[in-house]
Amino acid sequence: GVFSVYLRMMPDHLPATDDWARNSVYNSIKSQLRGEINQQYPNLPDANKNTLVETEFKKLLKTQKGPIEQQVKGTSDFFKSHLKNEKGTTYLLAIDPYYWYRYSRNVVEKGTTADIIKDGEPWDDHMLAPLGRPADRNFHIYFEAFLYKVFSAFNKDFDLMKAAFYIPVIISALSVIPTFFIARRISGNLGGLIAAIMVAVHPALLGRTAGGFADTDAYNVFFPLVITWLFLEAFESKNLKAKIIFASLAGFFVGLFAFSWMGWWYIFDFIIAAILFYIIYSVLAHRDQLKKGISHFILNTPIKSTLFLLITFILTSGIFVTLFANLDTFRVAPMQPLGFSRMKLVGVAKIWPNVLTTVAEQNPASLDNVINQIGIGKRLFFLISLVGIVLMLVRKHSKRLSDLWFVSISTLWYFIIIAFKPQNLITFIILISLPIIVKILLSLKEKDTKIDIKLAIILIIWFIATIYASTKGVRFLLLFVPAFSLTFGVALGVIYEYASKIISKSLNIHQAITKIALLLLIYFLFLSNPINAAKSTGRNEIPSMNDAWYSSLEKIRLESEPDAIVNSWWDFGHWFKAITDRAVTF
């Protein structure tokens, strides 16, 4: 969590300006030196002049180090000042955060998100001018306003933009907690730690949850992880009261998620699908009990508790989604995946232009590109994450030869699939699902009911659905990150446990020495590069907004008529609304 905060708070200090300043000062000094050398040696070849410039520059760096560093700092501070507001807060990084920022400001100043009340309805008169539209309501808006009120109670100079800046930092730090506990259940503390680190550093997530990127993306990772964690705790609880509490809490967070993002339904649908699959599996695994009658079958197999869990989860989710959003939002959840596949169609439901066709983050991606990006540029990482799902289908600490063969053959199978760079999405999904299907069928044949398929089923559904979503729009890669991180952590955690025991026994080395050596190997092979890449990403995050933009928009706010309309294509509309406090066409 601390490391996640460190990475995401980098834009607050804007370290990128230090690099800009150093380059600017060094180039200025070299330019002056070149001018002097040109005067002294006008006929000298350029290559010789360049050598002289570098030699003199290095001398200056040694003799004038203090003044040069002061000049670099001054220049960096100048750059920083143009990327911060008058209170010293770094401007929000992108465009969309200003949409929520304006609504939060309305809540702080007016107690409601609405600009006006029109025909008894809260109305946003700044969008789709001159008509306007119903005002938005969202957990993010109220949480932003709440944070501002809490912090400003202790610091009168604290501004709303600073509260908005902190939100993705706080939510992302909280996301590592359920990640750790989910992976830890399967693969111990190390597996949980690796999974948590990957959630903290993965570029597909870090780039959209850095401080100042105050959009809803952080919630799209946090809530699914919390819901999955609570659902698993409910499933594993032996006590009925604990099962009800955990399932109800999962339903509560489903409601909050529905109040945070329109795509909330995906984790709800995943879990429902996983429960239904588990019920089918349990029916087949305990089919011999059917001879004693349906009532005996239900009461004396895992189906009873699973059905109870399913009903509790659906019921509490329905209640909280209805409370936080509305009943229709919950009612249409099962059909939402069909709507997702049609979201970028043009001229079907509306004749108005579909802006999603022009949003860069909604650009489609090839399957090969998805594998590379989610694996942080390394196909090996993606292979390891697939092996993680396979390892979930093997008994914990199993030494059975059949399990070892299953894991080995599955690993080879996935290696071959990924090595051939698959292009067809459906074929790829079928191929990666085969080992899981085979293992489940074998366990049914062997009547091996001790294997735990719950998390594996959720994650394979998560994998398949988010791979599909990512090929439709690159922004959905961030939804893939939790499933990838969990399976990656599980794989390395389990491999670490097995390898440390085998190596210590076969080489007669103390297990503590083996574990330390393996930890170092895991760090240098699998964690050092992602961590260094994350530091680089965090260091180079800067706002699109700057003083030039802000002062220009402030001029419109101060000098234009209150009913003026800013007419532009959609891109900067949220900036215009938030800063000019004027309506926009689109």
Helix content: 55-70%
Instruction: Give the biggest sheet.
Output: 3 strands, antiparallel
Q: What amount of the residues lies in strands?
A: under 5%
Distance between the termini: 39 Å
Tags for this model:
two-stranded parallel ribbon, 3-stranded antiparallel β-sheet, mainly alpha, globular, 586 residues, 2% strand, single chain, 25 helices
Describe this structure in words.
β1 and β2 form a beta hairpin. The strands form two sheets. The protein has a three-stranded antiparallel beta sheet, with no helix packed on it. A two-stranded parallel ribbon has the order 4-5. It is globular. The protein is 70% helix and 2% strand. The model has no long low-confidence stretch (mean pLDDT 88). It is an all-alpha fold.
Question: Summed up, what is this model?
Answer:
This protein has 586 residues and is an all-alpha fold.
SSE layout:
Elements lengths: L1 H7 L1 H4 L2 H25 L5 H18 L1 H17 L15 H14 L5 E3 L2 E4 L8 E2 L4 H16 L5 H42 L1 H7 L9 H18 L3 H19 L6 H21 L8 H6 L3 H22 L2 H5 L4 H5 L26 H8 L4 H14 L8 H19 L5 H21 L8 H19 L4 H31 L3 H29 L7 H13 L5 E2 L6 H8 L2 E2 L2
Parallel strand pairs: 4-5
Antiparallel strand pairs: 1-2, 2-3
Helix pairs in contact: 1-8, 3-4, 3-5, 6-7, 6-25, 7-8, 8-9, 8-10, 8-22, 8-23, 10-11, 10-22, 11-14, 12-14, 12-21, 18-19, 18-22, 19-20, 21-22, 22-23, 24-25
